[in-house]
């Protein structure tokens, strides 16, 4: 489907410039789409690795807690972990990947100097509870990284879809419209030139006869 424009030389020149810009934009967007896909695939692989690792670590920690629950009374277990030894907050910033702002998350730990990660004395607790606490403490950074990577994957997927739609709009709509319109105008201009040439030849012939 061609554009509804006047078939003039000026319009033809303007459309050719638009076509050149559209073709350049299409190439840049296609390159961006390819690079986004490359980074997205890398992130998906990292996400799967992290998820498997985190699920395994959580499962092991849960087993230790179940063992601790089996050898300790519910009251003793609750009392042992009731008061935390440190406060943990989340610091969220951003970084840019291919024009996509993705989150960068960090834990900010606020603990007294020399404080232990175990919020209880060892006399009334079990080794299973110690191991469960240690595993959870170690897994927190991995959990945070997993959340960061998953959010980054989501944002990258959205950007890939937006870029894909723009590439398709240029490739299948705008560029074909411009090419068809330029072709139509060129044909019209050539037709007009042939008409003008025919008229000039007739006028010349009439003038020669008159002489």
Describe this structure in words.
With 211 residues, the chain is mainly alpha-helical. The protein contains 3 helices and 2 strands; from the N terminus they run ααββα. The chain has helices at 9-71, 74-80, 127-210; strands at residues 86-97, 100-111. Strand 1 and strand 2 (100-111) form a beta hairpin. Helix 1 packs antiparallel against helix 3. It is rod-shaped. Keywords: ATP synthesis, Hydrogen ion transport, Ion transport, Transport. Produces ATP from ADP in the presence of a proton gradient across the membrane. One of its GO terms (molecular function) is proton-transporting ATP synthase activity, rotational mechanism. One of its GO terms (biological process) is proton motive force-driven plasma membrane ATP synthesis.
